[in-house]
């Protein structure tokens, strides 16, 4: 144990900032409580320096000061968002690759085991075939359904179309978890649906989610196959289904329960949605793309951009980009941003 504690390099401490070793936890906690600690106290735990949880005190290099926990959390969340984005790209590539290779193969004889289980990837053309396949999967489901529902406020027709399947699942004790965008919180249809389903359904929301996904019992998944959603892919390949389940779980951990309020932006006059729009503007996205990703109309998106410009005192889109960066709105919220005085608005500050 002593040898391990005195080791150097990440080989001795194979973990990240979200799961510190026991010694690292003790030393970092002590540094946060006291504000700083002698460098020698951190020698047994080099992981704290490697993970940038401790750094030298510029006034006295024999001492170390802790990185603020809020800054560490911001760094971890940014990393999770990057992982999710990469996961979305990999899902698209994997599906395209399997479609290509599936098209090259010869028909499997009906007497083989693979034919009895059905194809790993099946293209469902037309709403009737999609609904029939979904009904079949619903009847076979026994434990869990995971869904991702993009597009903002759900229309009553959409909710009614799938209500019979949801009620059948509830009757068999199947648990359901649904992911929506934050905009969906404003739809009365969704609230009515969740009230009907009771504790059989748990719902959470995010600023933006991946394309539509429905996953039954971690064995079969359905995703759109075209932009109009008139075609779908039925996926039964274990690796693909497991991968989609992992993507869902990572999104679920980042999402906010529908019963909980959205977090305050910490900036007077700027809503949570406007903060999200500001971050996407900073990435260079056009209004239509931002609206689609957040599940709102282009007109609503532009109204929020106009309010952002007014609040931040920007006279042009270029100046708005500068103001967004100055206010710290170009990414996940950082702790305690430096106050920014808004022009022509007296002493009003962005906090």
UniProtKB/TrEMBL annotation:
Domain HTH luxR-type stretches: 263-328
Pfam families reported in the protein's UniProt record: GerE (PF00196)
Region Disordered, annotated ranges: 1-20, 328-351
CDD domains per the UniProt record, alphabetical: LuxR_C_like
Name recorded for this polypeptide: Helix-turn-helix transcriptional regulator
InterPro entries hit by this protein: Sig_transdc_resp-reg_C-effctor, TrmB-like, Tscrpt_reg_LuxR_C, WH-like_DNA-bd_sf
Gene3D superfamilies: Winged helix-like DNA-binding domain superfamily/Winged helix DNA-binding domain (1.10.10.10)
PANTHER family cross-referenced by the UniProt entry: HTH-TYPE TRANSCRIPTIONAL REGULATOR TRMBL2
SUPFAM superfamilies per UniProt: C-terminal effector domain of the bipartite response regulators
């Amino acid at each position: 144990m002593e040898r391990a504690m005195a080791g150097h390099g990440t080989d001795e401490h194979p973990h990240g900032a979200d799961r510190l070793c026991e010694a690292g936890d003790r030393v970092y906690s002590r540094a946060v409580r006291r504000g700083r600690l002698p460098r020698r106290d951190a020698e047994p735990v080099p992981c704290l320096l490697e993970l940038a949880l401790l750094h030298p005190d510029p006034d006295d290099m024999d001492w170390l000061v802790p990185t603020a926990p809020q800054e560490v959390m911001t760094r971890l969340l940014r990393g999770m968002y990057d992982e999710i984005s990469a996961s979305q790209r990999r899902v698209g590539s994997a599906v395209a690759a399997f479609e290509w290779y599936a098209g090259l193969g010869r028909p499997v004889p009906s007497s083989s085991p693979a034919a009895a289980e059905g194809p790993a990837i099946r293209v469902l053309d037309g709403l009737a075939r999609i609904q029939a396949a979904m009904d079949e999967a619903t009847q076979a489901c026994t434990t869990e359904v995971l869904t991702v529902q993009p597009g903002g406020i759900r229309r009553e027709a959409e909710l009614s179309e799938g209500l019979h399947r949801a009620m059948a699942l509830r009757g068999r004790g199947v648990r359901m978890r649904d992911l929506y965008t934050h905009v969906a919180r404003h739809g009365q249809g969704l609230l009515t649906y969740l009230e009907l389903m009771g504790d059989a359904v748990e719902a959470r929301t995010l600023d933006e989610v991946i394309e539509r996904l429905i996953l039954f019992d971690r064995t079969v998944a359905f995703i759109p196959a075209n932009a109009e959603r008139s075609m779908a892919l039925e996926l039964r390949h274990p690796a693909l289904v497991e991968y989609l389940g992992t993507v869902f779980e990572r999104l679920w951990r980042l999402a906010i329960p529908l019963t909980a309020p959205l977090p305050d932006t910490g900036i007077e006059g700027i809503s949570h949605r406007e903060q999200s729009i500001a971050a996407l503007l900073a990435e260079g996205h056009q209004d239509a793309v931002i609206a689609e990703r957040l599940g709102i109309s282009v007109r609503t998106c532009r109204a929020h951009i106009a309010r952002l410009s007014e609040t931040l005192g920007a006279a042009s889109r270029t100046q708005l980009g500068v103001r967004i960066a100055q206010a710290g709105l170009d990414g996940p919220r950082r702790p305690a941003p430096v106050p920014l005085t808004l022009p022509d608005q007296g002493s009003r500050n962005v906090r």
